[in-house]
Amino acid sequence: MRRFLVAFNYLGKGEDDDLSFLTTLVNPTSLEILELNTNNFVGLLPASVSNLSTELIELSLSYNQISGEIPRWISNLKKLQAFFVAYNRFHGEIPSEIGDLIYLQELALLGNQFSGQIPISLGNLASLTKLSLRENNLQGRIPSSLGKCHNLELLDLGSNNLSGFIPSEILELSSLLEGVDLSQNHLTGFLSMEIGKLRNLGYLNLSDNKLQGQIPTSIGTCVKLEALDLNNNFQGSIPSTMNSLQGLELLVLSHNNLSGGIPGFLKDFKFLQILNLSRNNLEGAVPTGGIFSNATVVFIIGNRNLCGGVPDSGLRCRGKERKEIRGTDRFSASNLLGMGAFGSVYKGISEHDGTVFAVKVLDLSHHAVSRSFLAECAVLKNIRHRNLVKVLSACSGIDYEGNELKAIVYEYMDKGKSLYGLK
Q: Residues within the annotated binding site for ATP?
């Protein structure tokens, strides 16, 4: 018997000896593939497994309720190429003996309760192509020895308690094709310029760590990226070199300290489906067209100095809006000029030169407001009338409390001499 395949069944009694049947396998010395994944097996991995064929190339135990530690005799399975124990109840440290399995190509230990450090010996696995240790309780640093796994295509260490720097040796692995996920750890330091050497990388997720500094300009050479998530503490502007990442489908730069404007080239990303730039310090006009035409997939909340971004408004948007809104004392009742069906008008004073102006703030609880706003912008940008004051600008963005804001800034005239279109 070379294959024993009982995956995707309902086997197992929920008892500690569920796997004892492995001792009764006929002619186990010729067994090459053992698949027990996706059943209801519980209990410990019996020592009899160590007596299985030295010809065994695949051992798949994923999606069961097997517990205990991975036994050190695992190194007896000299020719093992694939070892899958994902989503069980294994605990303890990952045995360093796994590093003796020199033919191992795929190692999936995700979704367990492993603790301790990632063994340095994993760097001995020269044939390794996929390594997934995510969703455990692993601690300590990412071993630089993983940089010796020159055939590695996927590295997933997300959702652990790893700390320290990202080893530059890993960022130099040109073999990484599928992806790198180091998210939800406690990694610190700067993202090295070496990241640019991952030219064939499909996705990169470094979110929810404690990385800082600027996003390296070399990220622009990772032209095969389809998903990029850098939710961290990055500063500076969004690199112009990212213009080359035309294949992106997902871009998340939220919860950073990024400043400057939103690059206009993002509207030209034809495959981009989700764009999250929320909770930064971005400012200026939000681009129009492309993905920015669909408000349901673009997230920019929490950038208090953004404005514009309303399709077809045709109105000039200036960075001055934020100062003008502050000039109303944050829409204080003492500056209220009047109220209408769709909003309120406030008097404001420019901090810069004392110019008096008026700001009409729309009440977004009305479903027709957005449509009304677009229509009003389209009309007011062209109309001139003695009873209609000059429209200085329009602003669609986030207010000082992080809420959505749509407002029109008018030239101020005394009440009775002008109409602000309150209704």
A: 360
